[in-house]
């Protein structure tokens, strides 16, 4: 099978390329050349900007890919451009989406109040408000203001002449994670903090995570299996309360401390989580497991070990601030610990 990947050189992409190549498929990677990735020998590279794709019709026809995998569809216009470029050439487009399409995400952000039942299925209600990052002063990974995976999915799944497949991703962690999701906790562990304190409501909150190689395996299966045509899938491998997740992480890091759930009245009066923990955010992954035969290729223990090794070797220049919990200083933590004794 011939696969044309748009993106493919940053974080998740190289793992997808590796797995497709290992499966024996012919892979071409189209990227801007801003990220250097060690791709397997035999993988073709074309450098360019995605806005140029509709003008590359003759070159794309010569490549004649069976499936197009678009890793960097952020906006409706991105999706329209991809579908226009490959209509009449490819047999299918696979789009990488996110579980932020669900109404539960708006509830989590405090934009809606009615709690959505979990686990989320691929048929759970979507957000009614578009452009979730539009009003955010700082958008993760410099996402554009008109970012919205709902619009991306509508375009990809509504073209009768070019069928689509959608993979909705969780919070992805692992080596080369640009958000360094686990680093703030690892830093405390490596500095021998006796405890990591979690607000009681956050300690029991369940989120949706996926290790990069496991996520890549799911994407590769969706690309290579024609049964995925016209379907939407979830993928996730770690969906447990935060206190358990961080306890597993601490064990893998060789940390001797404890993760402690702290009642609200012990916390500073002006300190609040930036999201509504009454809305949990995890998904049902039955469909991809039953229809495409997905299962994790990397165990949780090994996934955490690989992530820890990479984070220790590649600390970020600044402390990530994706939850707000990183704002806790050690003096405050020590004071709370004294009160808990």
Over the alpha carbons, how many angstroms does the gyration radius reach?
A: 21 Å
Query: Going by CATH, what is the homologous superfamily?
Result: NAD(P)-binding Rossmann-like Domain
* Oligomer type: single chain
Average pLDDT, to the nearest integer?
93
CATH fold field value: Rossmann fold
- Order of strands across the main sheet: 3-2-1-4-5-6-10
**Could you tell me the number of beta strands?**
11
Principal-axes shape call: globular
Low-pLDDT segments:
none
Protein name: NAD-dependent epimerase/dehydratase family protein
InterPro entries: Epimerase_deHydtase, Lipid_A_modif_metabolic_enz, NAD(P)-bd_dom_sf
Organism: Gloeocapsopsis crepidinum LEGE 06123
Pfam family, one: Epimerase
Describe this structure in words.
By secondary structure, this protein is an alpha/beta fold. The protein has one domain (2-340): Rossmann fold. The protein is 33% helix and 15% strand. It is built from twelve helices and eleven strands. The strands form three sheets. The protein has a seven-stranded parallel beta sheet, with helices on both faces. Strand 1, helix 1 and strand 2 (26-31) form a beta-alpha-beta unit. Helix 1 crosses helix 8 (212-224) and helix 3 (76-86) packs parallel to helix 5. The mean pLDDT is 93.
List keywords for this structure.
341 residues, Rossmann fold, seven-stranded parallel sheet, 33% helix, NAD(P)-bd_dom_sf, Lipid_A_modif_metabolic_enz
Structure at a glance:
The chain contains 12 helices and 11 strands. The chain is α/β, with parallel strands linked by helices.
């Amino acid at each position: 099978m011939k696969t044309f990947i748009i993106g493919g050189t940053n974080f998740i992409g190289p793992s997808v390329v590796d797995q497709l190549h290992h499966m024996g498929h012919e892979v071409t990677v189209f990227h801007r050349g801003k990220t250097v990735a060690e791709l397997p020998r035999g993988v073709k590279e074309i450098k360019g900007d995605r806005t140029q794709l509709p003008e590359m019709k003759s070159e794309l026809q010569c490549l004649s890919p069976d499936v197009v995998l678009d890793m960097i569809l952020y906006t409706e216009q991105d999706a329209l451009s991809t579908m226009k470029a490959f209509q009449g050439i490819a047999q299918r487009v696979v789009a990488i989406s996110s579980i932020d399409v669900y109404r539960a995400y708006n509830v989590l952000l405090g934009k809606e109040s009615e709690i959505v039942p979990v686990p989320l299925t691929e048929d759970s209600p979507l957000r009614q408000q578009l452009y979730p990052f539009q009003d955010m002063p700082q958008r993760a990974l410099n996402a554009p203001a008109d970012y919205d995976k709902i619009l991306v999915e509508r375009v990809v799944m509504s073209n009768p002449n070019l069928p689509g497949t959608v993979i909705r991703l969780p919070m992805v962690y692992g080596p080369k994670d640009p958000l360094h999701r686990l680093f703030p906790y690892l830093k405390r562990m490596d500095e021998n903090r006796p405890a990591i304190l979690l607000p009681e409501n956050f300690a029991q909150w369940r989120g949706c995570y996926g290790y990069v190689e496991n996520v890549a395996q799911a994407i590769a299966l969706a690309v290579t299996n024609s049964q995925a045509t016209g379907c939407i899938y979830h993928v996730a491998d770690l969906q447990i309360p935060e206190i358990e997740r961080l306890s597993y992480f601490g064990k893998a890091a060789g940390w001797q401390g404890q993760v402690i759930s702290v009642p609200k009245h012990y916390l500073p009066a002006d300190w609040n989580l930036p999201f509504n923990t009454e809305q949990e955010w995890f998904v049902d992954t039955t469909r991809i497991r039953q229809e495409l035969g997905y299962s994790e290729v990397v165990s949780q223990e090994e996934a955490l070990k690989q992530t820890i090794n990479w984070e220790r070797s590649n600390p970020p220049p600044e402390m990530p601030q994706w939850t707000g919990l990183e704002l806790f200083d050690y003096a405050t933590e020590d004071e709370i610990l004294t009160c808990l004794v």
